[in-house]
Description:
This protein has about 60 residues and is an all-alpha fold. It has helices spanning about 1-30, 35-60. It is elongated. About 10% of the residues are buried.
Amino acid sequence: xxxxVLIALVFLAMLASLAAGAGFLLxxxxxxxxxxxxxxxxxxxxxxxLCLLFYGFYAGGLGG
Length: 64
């Protein structure tokens, strides 16, 4: 159960980072450092989400 909650939280954080990046792109333009930082955070969250999913399927917590 905790694994599923963690996966949902990381996914929501990814969506928040995506929305923030879109806002930075509209406000600051394409050369913004905040936009780059938002992308870095989103890539790190994506890697974390993939690791959690792989662990979940490997451990049997998500396999059904």
